[in-house]
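Sample entry (37 residues):
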Amino acid sequence: MKNKHKISAFAAVFTVITLVLGAASVIGAMFQRKKLK
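Predicted structure, serialized as tokens:
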């Protein structure tokens, strides 16, 4: 039972990191576009 909880917690952290990285890349792309214009 403990191992299963650990895996789900790791999956949640991994999902959050992926979302943050995705948002950061999107914001960075928008910022670069504004800078070019």
